[in-house]
């Protein structure tokens, strides 16, 4: 149990896929303008990460490895992720049309969100079992959620400010993201010291 909590905390804070490993930057910069869209995108990413991890772990363990077809890993994983994103898109369109419209083009981008693919492959590279993989995916999704919500707040504050002309727009957004990223380096060592 302690190992699972350690994996969860490390994935969410220490090894944050957006702020430490710089994966999933496109939705991070594109959908973080308002809190509702950021939250909706994050919940969709958490769902897709967890489900994709569960499915891809089983496919890798019970289908690809026994047949010596590990070389198909990336292609198969992308197909699984694409299918899951389509399911999420259909569900949102039917049940929460306002969120579906707010997410717009960024929802299909979960298919190519390298954070989702990165988590599925990293779980296998680290040798995680099924439960560890799902916990790592959930923690990574929580880290994505945390980064999106915090950055949404930062962006709402910077929109109300008057920066110098050269920093308006994207430069200010990127500077704000880099400062937020630096703040997550403060979590280094915490998980090891708590559970080590």
Strand content: under 5%
* CA radius of gyration: 18 Å
What is the string of helix and strand elements? HHHHHHHHH
Number of domains: 1
- The mean pLDDT is 87
Distance between the termini: 14 Å
Query: Percent of residues in helical segments?
Result: over 70%
* Envelope shape: globular
Low-confidence stretches are none
Q: Report the sheet with the most strands, covering strand number, pairing sense and barrel closure.
A: none
Number of strands: 0
Based on the structure, what is the oligomeric state of the protein chains?
single chain
In DSSP terms, counting alpha (H) and pi (I) runs of 4 or more, how many helices? 9
Q: Which structural class best describes the helix and strand composition?
A: mainly alpha
Helix-strand layout with pairing:
Elements: H1 2-14, H2 25-30, H3 35-64, H4 73-95, H5 97-103, H6 114-125, H7 130-159, H8 170-184, H9 190-195
Helix pairs in contact: 1-7, 3-4, 3-6, 3-7, 4-5, 4-6, 6-7, 7-8
Structure, described:
The protein has 196 residues and is mainly α. It has one domain. Helices cover 72% and strands 0% of the residues. The protein contains 9 helices and no strands. It has helices at residues 2-14, 25-30, 35-64, 73-95, 97-103, 114-125, 130-159, 170-184, 190-195. It starts with a helix and ends with a helix. 35% of the residues are buried. The mean pLDDT is 87.
